[in-house]
Amino acid sequence: xxxxxxxxxxxQLKNTGIDGVVTIVLLDKNKEQSYVPGKVRYEPxxxxxxxxxxxxxxxxxxxxxxxxxxxxxxxxxxxxxxLYDISRNKLLYSAQSESFDPSSVESMAxxxxxxIIKDMKKxxxx
Length: 126
Fold this sequence. Notes:
5 strands; 54% strand; 22% helix; Rossmann fold; two-stranded antiparallel sheet; alpha+beta
């Protein structure tokens, strides 16, 4: 809503019959680097050892397989959601939330909106 004042915007919203507005603001975005340690796993292997023409035996040993450690970077997003009653010019609801390394903007928006709606219902706003 560039080029329009808050009063003009509220007046336009009231004139169109809108009585409430939800705003969502990105407050902060942090990148964190963390180390994921390496792992060792063991895989058993069995083989046959022949001692002579007539007999042999099976032996088993465990192979060690190393997975090296690595660094990963994760992003946290911090949001603030507000619900305003335009007719009474009153803030009805405010919540801060965070999202951790979303796979996409759409999935993040979907999860955030569902969590906010659930919280609003819990607080009996509708």
